[in-house]
Amino acid sequence: MYEKDGTKYFIVDSHIHAWDGTPANQANRYGEGFLNCFFDYHRNLSPESEIWTHEQFQKQSEEKILHDLFEVGYVDKAIFQPTYLTDFFVNGFNTTEQDGALAEKHPDKFIVNGGWDPRDGEAGLGALERLAERWQLKGTKLYTAEWKGESKGWKLTDPWSYRYLEKCQELGIRNIHIHKGPTIYPLNRDAFDVADVDDVASAFPELNFIVEHVGLPRLEDFCWIATQEPNVYGGLAVAMAFMHHRPRYFAQIIGELLFWLDENRITFSSDYAIWTPKWLVEQFVDFQIPEDMQDEYGVLTTDVKRKILGLNAARLYDIEVPAEMRAAEPEVPAGREPVASELNQEVLSS
């Protein structure tokens, strides 16, 4: 929980990792390059006081994770999002099992999400069933640009992907997080294109599609899809980190998201351990859209910030929020309706 000027904020960090990027776990030069690319994002967008050494960045201890998130980071609940990358890392970069081992020791602090890859075919469907039973999954994280042998990616619209999304519905896994947007060495930018979200969001209205990184740099593509698909959400991982060095760019991002989606479909993410939640939470509560941009984008109210920092993700994952930290405003205030999804919201709930 974070408190500022008498206002309390319930914090759900909806995109975190417990990774092993050490040289001992790197299978090849691609593993080293992937970790180095993450580190460059960390080094170039963090405040100077928050920059770690490369060695600190490679892997975090249990004590370090608990300290950064819960002791000083204000987080009430954190959601693990796995990133397997078994072609690049000997034991995987950040697997459900690795995350689950930590979550099992601290069940009041963490939620574990699973992962799947349609290229695993029938065997993967069985593995997903076992993951769901073992970890009581409510969500999953997908990495459409991940390499597997000769393949350098897949699409949500692939026939086997449909089979996996149907399995998610059957198993009650309703939150589908997808990395869409920023490329990471050596993965290909086009394999992270947000375009395939449009089709599956229409085909699976009972599922929520949380597009992590809001499709950057294809923000406009993402917004035009999300405004007509009421089950599409924007995850602020990476986008939020621009707040420190590029505040006007971040104001443009958050302003566009509020215009096209509204404040009920945007979620906070630190993307730990690329960044730590402490400075992100503190700066976002203090942040305001510059005056010369407010005619177009409006202002960030306390309730908007409360929803983004925790209440929206809490709703997706049925996390109980103390009464004093709930928003006072209605879900969609007058004059802030989504551009093109209002009637489709009724379709989804019918």
Task: Produce the secondary structure layout.
Blueprint: E1 2-4, E2 7-9, E3 12-16, H1 29-45, H2 54-58, H3 62-71, E4 77-80, H4 96-105, E5 110-112, E6 114-115, H5 121-135, E7 139-142, H6 159-171, E8 175-179, H7 197-203, E9 208-212, H8 219-226, E10 232-235, H9 242-245, H10 247-260, E11 266-267, H11 277-286, H12 294-297, H13 302-316, H14 342-349
Parallel strand pairs: 3-4, 4-5, 6-7, 7-8, 8-9, 9-10, 10-11
Antiparallel strand pairs: 1-2
Region (Disordered): 329-350
Domain Amidohydrolase-related: 12-319
Organism: Saccharopolyspora gregorii
Identify the notable features of this structure and list them briefly:
alpha/beta, 350 residues, three-stranded parallel sheet
Regions with little confidence, pLDDT below 50 for 5+ residues: 332-336
Q: Work out the number of β strands.
A: 11
Strand content: 5-15%
Mean pLDDT equals 94
Strand order of the largest sheet: 6-7-8-9-10-11
Describe the structure.
With 350 residues, this protein is α/β, with parallel strands linked by helices. 40% of the residues lie in helices and 11% in strands. It is built from 14 helices and eleven strands. It has helices spanning 29-45, 54-58, 62-71, 96-105, 121-135, 159-171, 197-203, 219-226, 242-245, 247-260, 277-286, 294-297, 302-316, 342-349; strands at residues 2-4, 7-9, 12-16, 77-80, 110-112, 114-115, 139-142, 175-179, 208-212, 232-235, 266-267. The strands form three sheets. The protein has a six-stranded parallel β-sheet with strand order 6-7-8-9-10-11. Strands 3-4-5 form a three-stranded parallel β-sheet. A two-stranded antiparallel sheet has the order 1-2. Helix 5 (121-135) runs parallel beside helix 6. The model is unreliable at 332-336 (pLDDT under 50). InterPro entries: Amidohydro-rel, Metal_Hydrolase. It holds the Pfam family Amidohydro_2. Residues 12-319 form the Amidohydrolase-related domain. It comes from Saccharopolyspora gregorii.
